[in-house]
Design goal:
The model has no long low-confidence stretch (mean pLDDT 97). The protein has three domains: 164 residues, FAD/NAD(P)-binding domain; 113 residues, 3-Layer(bba) Sandwich (FAD/NAD(P)-binding domain), CATH 3.50.50; 115 residues, FAD/NAD(P)-binding domain. α1 runs parallel beside α8. A hairpin with a 2-residue loop joins β21 and β22. The longest helix is centred in the last third of the chain and has 15 residues. It has twelve helices and 25 strands. It has 449 residues and is of the alpha/beta class.
Length: 449
């Protein structure tokens, strides 16, 4: 019987193990995890820190017992430190420093991503935190309970940054968010990003853009965060949310090729160039459905799919990962922002002839109480009429995630913008209009085309 070893117990690793067991229940599968928290929702960390999720154990998609009941072995608190492809061994180190080899017949690398550590002097100052793994959240939680911080600075205005601005505000802190770009949430066009800035500010968050943090220091007043222009913000704690990079060093040291942004290079079967070694999740390149090339796009949804593909192929399957559109959604206070496909600038860089239009529209019939404005931006190709991407911002009750998924489904099936108008979408006055906002956006684009 082939011995299946998986390095990494997050989305990709667990999905692969479960798929292997679905296909062949008696498979010998062991997952090696560097910590003691297999299959925990890292995406849920801001909501645990905000208090919206009261118990950290609730972040587990499955408990340890539930995973082991599937016949999956767990080797927790063991870090993989070396892969020897010739000997077909993984060397692991336990928390007591002991190292030993583990043999494999088939290997999956699912080591995930690491927090980007920007070149900021004093970034290791006490009270400065990153947020990537469960241990990070425990450190933040412990600091908040023991030190009772009242002021926080967040470096980075992406998804984690704005979620943590929401979380710490809910905990009663005065929050300042510093972003180097002209607007927060740069995955959106600036005309939509400004609505997220307004939501942050309406809830008391000070937003500073176009400022690069240069250094951090501590004195009797607290932690001082200095920008390159000399501006200083003082806080009791700092969260650095400057993005993620692939944790690919283990693979590189084994001679496995890397590509875009240092991510592990895989084909669409999730196989590396080394025999019987696959890789999946936030540590690998991702095939982009529209660009028709590999990109680095770490997303939990993508990791689940890639892991499932890898697991099937480790048993001899021929499944291919169908690719990603970069579909994402985030909630901040009472607003939700989402995107899928390409922004206009990205489409132009890829060689398309993009046209983007924006509109604001009520999320349901305005005569029914509670109607809220939605802001939609749709991008299509002038030459062909094909849909290329969409972005939305709306109230948390406006079903933004449902509507961005309509756009994502249309992109997956290579639909033209015009075809959106033919979709048979649901309607009732409390929830939508006879022409859904998705279709109103398509009509606006066609009117400008």
């Amino acid at each position: 019987m082939n011995k299946m070893i998986i390095i990494g117990a997050s989305d990709a690793g667990i999905s692969a193990a479960l798929r292997i067991k679905e296909i062949k229940a008696n498979s010998d599968v062991t997952i090696i995890a560097a910590d003691a928290f297999p299959n925990f929702s890292i995406c849920g960390l801001p909501f645990y820190l905000s208090g919206e999720v009261a118990e950290w154990r609730d972040l587990a998609h499955r408990t340890r017992d539930e995973i082991e009941q599937q016949g999956i072995g767990l080797l927790l608190d063991h870090r993989a430190v070396k892969i020897d492809p010739d000997a077909r061994q993984v060397h692991v180190r336990s928390t007591d420093g002991q190292t030993r080899p583990i043999s494999y017949d088939k290997l999956l690398i699912a080591t995930g991503a690491e927090s980007v550590q920007p070149p900021i002097r004093g970034i290791d100052t006490i009270g400065v935190f990153f947020l990537r793994w469960m241990a990070d959240s425990f450190a933040v939680k412990r600091f908040m309970e023991e030190e009772n911080p009242r002021r926080a600075v967040i470096i980075g205005g992406g998804y984690i940054g704005i979620e943590m601005a929401d979380a710490l505000t809910r905990k009663g802190m005065a929050v300042t968010l510093v972003e180097s770009a002209p607007e927060v949430l740069t995955t959106l066009s600036t005309d939509l990003g400004k609505h997220i800035r307004a939501e942050l500010q309406a809830n008391g968050v000070q937003v500073i853009t176009k400022q690069m943090v240069d250094r951090i220091s501590r004195d009797h007043d607290g932690i001082n965060v200095y920008t390159a222009s000399g501006k200083n913000e003082t806080a009791d704690m700092v969260i650095v949310a400057a993005g993620a990079r692939p944790a690919a060093e283990l693979a590189q040291s084994a001679g496995i090729e890397t590509g875009v942004e240092g991510a592990i290079r895989v084909n669409r079967a999730m196989a590396t160039q080394k025999a019987d070694i696959w890789a999946a999740g936030d540590c690998v390149e991702t095939w982009h459905q529209i660009l028709k090339q590999n990109v680095y796009l770490p997303l939990g949804t993508t990791a689940h799919k890639q892991g499932r593909v890898a697991g099937e192929n480790m048993l001899g399957g021929t499944r291919e990962f169908q690719g990603s559109l970069g579909t994402q959604v985030v909630k901040v206070f009472d607003r939700v922002a989402a995107r899928t496909g390409l922004k206009e600038t990205e489409a132009a860089e890829a060689g398309y002839d993009p046209l983007s239009v924006s509109l604001d529209v009520w999320d349901h019939k305005v005569y029914y109480p509670g109607a809220e404005k939605m802001y939609v931006r749709i991008t299509g190709d002038r030459s062909t009429g094909w849909l290329l991407g969409a972005q939305m911002v709306g109230h948390r009750k406006s079903e933004v995630s449902k509507r961005i998924d309509i756009f994502a489904t249309a992109l997956y099936h290579n639909m033209a913008v015009r075809a959106l108008c033919d979709l048979d979408l649901s309607y009732t006055p409390p929830l939508s209009s006879p022409w859904d906002p998705v279709q109103m956006a398509a009509m606006r684009w066609l009117g400008c085309h």
